[in-house]
Structures are given as structure tokens and as C-alpha cells.
Design brief:
There is one protein chain. This protein is mainly β. Helix content is 9%, strand content 26%. It has one helix at 2-9; strands spanning 47-51, 54-60, 66-72, 80-83. The radius of gyration is 14 Å and the shape is globular. The two termini are 18 Å apart. 13% of the residues are buried.
Length: 89
């Protein structure tokens, strides 16, 4: 979820991520250390590449973090990943 947010909205002057377990209740809202990371500004717009049956979206940030989301053709899930997170988190 955080990787997708960073790719889509990273660097916007005003944006926020709302993450919960349902539309009507935040009782199960899990906190993640990824919310505390200072990702910095994006180094450019997101990039899109196609590898086999996968479409890969990626965005790099001044902190060294790289957000990636991979969507496999025909799948309903697009897993995300963040690498290069500054040490200490």
C-alpha cells in the first residue's frame, strides 16, 4: 500500500495515505514503521516497464528509497515493495 502511494502521489505538495481494514471502521488500522520514513522528494516521475507478463512501476526518492509495484497480467493483486530505506528504521 505504501509503495503504491509513493508511486502515485510521492512528492505532491499536499497528500495523505488513509489505510484501514474497512470503509466504516479504523479499529483494525495497523501502524507500520514505513509511515515514519522520510522518503524525500521523488527524483522524477514514476517509470513503467514490462517484463514478461508483469508490468512494473517504480519511483526513486532522494533518500535512496525505491518504491516498486508489480502487476501480473490477469491477477487482481499488485504487490508492492520499498527498498533502500534509510538505516535506523
Amino acid at each position: 500500500t505504501v509503495a503504491g502511494y509513493l508511486i502515485g502521489a510521492g512528492g505532491a505538495a499536499h497528500s495523505y495515505l488513509m489505510y484501514g481494514t474497512s470503509w466504516t471502521s479504523d479499529k483494525g488500522w495497523p501502524w507500520s514503521p514505513l509511515f515514519d520514513v522520510e522518503y524525500g522528494r521523488p527524483l522524477g516521475p514514476p517509470t513503467r516497464s514490462v517484463v514478461g507478463n508483469d508490468t512494473v512501476w517504480e519511483r526513486r526518492f532522494t533518500s535512496g528509497a525505491v518504491a516498486t509495484v508489480t502487476c501480473t497480467q490477469g491477477s487482481r493483486s499488485c504487490p508492492g515493495n520499498i527498498t533502500g530505506i534509510p538505516r535506523g528504521l
